[in-house]
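Two quick folds needed for the group meeting slides. Do the first one here.
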Amino acid sequence: MELRLLRTFKAVAEAGSFTQAASRIHLSQAAVSVHIRQLEEELGTPLFLRVNKKLFLTEAGRALLTHAEAILRAHDEARAELAAIGGPSRGRLHIGVASTTITVHPLPEILSEIKRKYALLDLSLVGGTSERIIERILANDIDVGLVSLPVEASDVMTETLRSDRLVAVMNPRHKLARAREVSADELAAGPLILGEKGGNTRRLIDLFFEKSGLDPNVVMELQRTEAIVKMVELGFGVTILPAGSVHTDVARGRLRSAPVQGLNLRWEFGVAYLKSDYLSPALESFLKLCRAYIGKHDGGWLLKTK
């Protein structure tokens, strides 16, 4: 039995639905169906009963689930232990980052401490949207991500490090600059400058307008928060960002910010990693350093995430 088939089977058994399982493990529903069919053909017995579009485990399915959980857990533990062979300085720590500013500070300081402690560690760093980083965590391409939250994948563990309110941001000469509060209608009229789709912050904003029954006039979709801020500063439009990401610009008079009526969603930033009974020493050290450097607010740096 292939591990990928067992992972798919476990996801379907837990979700009780091919559709929900497909979303959880980032496969198409057709691929999930093929995996289950291959497993049933290999074992020569049905694993699920299909009743009124609902799935129930057969007796064979219940027996397999117990073994599948043990096999997958043992596999994850074996990989982690083998990665550590040769001493505590070895192992792997592949990191995904959805923040542009954090790669300037304090991530270099965090990685310096990790490298000093684990000299032979296989250490790598990649950027991307929060959504893409979570996909790569689920695929075991990377071990931990610094992403905006929440994360919907149930197989991923998350921990919030920072939280902030989302505010409207505009040029001081904009017609909304003197408003104490900005309405969803005023923002939707635009022009709006937002982050690219696929980022968690953009998802929260799209959800807000959707619930308000509005189709916002988005004229620019940019990858980097710094680019969004610059375009707003030059008067090309208004944006919605975490208050802390523009705190310095607002304090210096380059930008204005205002609360948004009805926007009660908070931006959250934290760490995400695959649920497992075992965390490598390097990952545990990385998590502790993230709590120390990012979890405390010292005003010395501002997060800007996708």
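Then this one, please, same format:
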Amino acid sequence: MDCTNAQTLLDGYLDGELDPVRNLEIEEHLHGCTRCSLSYSDRQVIRGGLKTESLYFKAPADLQKRIQRSVRQAAKAEAPTRWLSWSWLRVAAPLAAAALVVLMLVPFFGGPSSDELLTQDVVASHIRSLMVNHLADVRSTDEHTVKPWFNGKLDFSPPVSDLAKQGFPLIGGRLDYLNNRPVAALVYQRDKHVINVFVWPPNRTRQTSESITKQQGYNVIRWTRSGMNFWTVSDLERSQLEKFVELLNASKVSSTG
């Protein structure tokens, strides 16, 4: 199977619509083709994102009351004559149609915020790095090897710390792309759990406290400090990831102090 056929069949494969023979063919192709594997992982991320509650917006309670009130008022105007019955239908049908349109449009007006979209992108980048086995462009446990590697590749110098003594060894670093710009991705490990730390300068220099969320089973912690945005994501349990963030911030304070 070539890439053209694989790209055509990816959606059907993702939805479980292919026959067993086609499934085996496309699985074999995905194992050997990085490009199609990336396309498949992107589709998985998009599909997972579309199932999140952030894409749905509950209609306001007063909207239902207004619709019911309009229908009751129209019903009161109904007379026993056949002519008035048809007249009521002519009034109620447009009201019902308008209410249906409003209910269908409400989710679009309550879509995900920019922070929610960025969180989805961060998690997608983390998943992608695990699926295509591309955790690091520079593999090293030495912070003095990883930090200089970014020179000339980014318009900022990311802070790099090795936390091996505390149980979170540095694995390496790579370039990534988030928030419409190149960013630094620092990779750490805790037992068999991978931790990605995405770093880039903020649009505003003000310091922000930690914000913790969960997306697709991954814990995400973000904060702004020392002129940098930090987004940390891992399947590590929340308390362990919070400990890692505490150690990371402490190491940066000691290195600048």
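Slide caption for protein two: The first strand starts at residue 138 and ends at 139.
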